[in-house]
Amino acid sequence: MDTFDTVDLLEHALTQMGEVIAGIRPEQAALPTPCTGWDVHALVRHVIGQSLRNFLVSARGEMADWAAPPEELGPDWAVQFRAAAAPVLDTWRSADLDRLVPVPGGKEAPLRGRADQQLTELAMHAWDLVRATGQDRELDPDIAEHGLAWSHTMLRPEFRGPDRAFGLEVPVAPDAPAYDRLAGWFGRDPAWKSPGQGSCSR
Predict the structure, then answer these.
(1) pLDDT(31) > 90
(2) Residue 74 dihedral angles phi and psi, to the nearest 5°
(3) All domains of the chain in start order, with CATH
(4) What predicted TM-score, i.e. pTM, was given to this entire model?
C-alpha cells in the first residue's frame, strides 16, 4: 500500500471513529467496554485526549509521551474529536511515510509504521465503542484487515498476559469477519456484549 492509500484509509478510519463517537448517548458514558477496565467515558477520553494528541506528535516524526495522562473531555465529544482529528490528518497528508524516525530501543523505522499503528488503534477502539453502546453500525472491514496485517508483525507474545499491555489471544476462526479476528487477536472476546444486551465475557 502506498502513502496515498495509507493516508486515505487513515482518513476513513478517523471519519468512522467520529461517527461512532457521535452515536454515543450521554447516559452511556459509564457503560463497560470490551477494553478491560475502561468504561465508555475513559475509552473516549483515551482516543481524543491521548491518542490523537500523541499521534499528532508521532506524525511529525517526534517521540510521543504515552505515559502522559489524557486531556479532559469537553461536553461535546463529537465536536472535540473532529477538532483534534483535523490537524492529525493534515500532518499525515504532508508527511513522508518512508522517512526513518526513532523507535524504542534506539533504532529507526519508516514513519509509515506509526500511521499503521494509528489505523489499528482506531479500528480496535471503534469496535470497542460500538459493542459497548450497542450501535447498529457496519464498520469498514478494510480498516480492520489493515490493522490485522500490521499488528501480526508487531504484537509479540511477550506483550501479552496479566499486567501486560495486551490480553492473551482469543481463538477465532480464520474465516470469521475482520473485526471478530481483530478483537480476538487483541485479546477480546468477539462475542462480548454490554450488560443488558446478553451475556458477556471477561
Answers:
(1) yes
(2) -85, -175
(3) 3-185 (1.20.120.450)
(4) 0.92
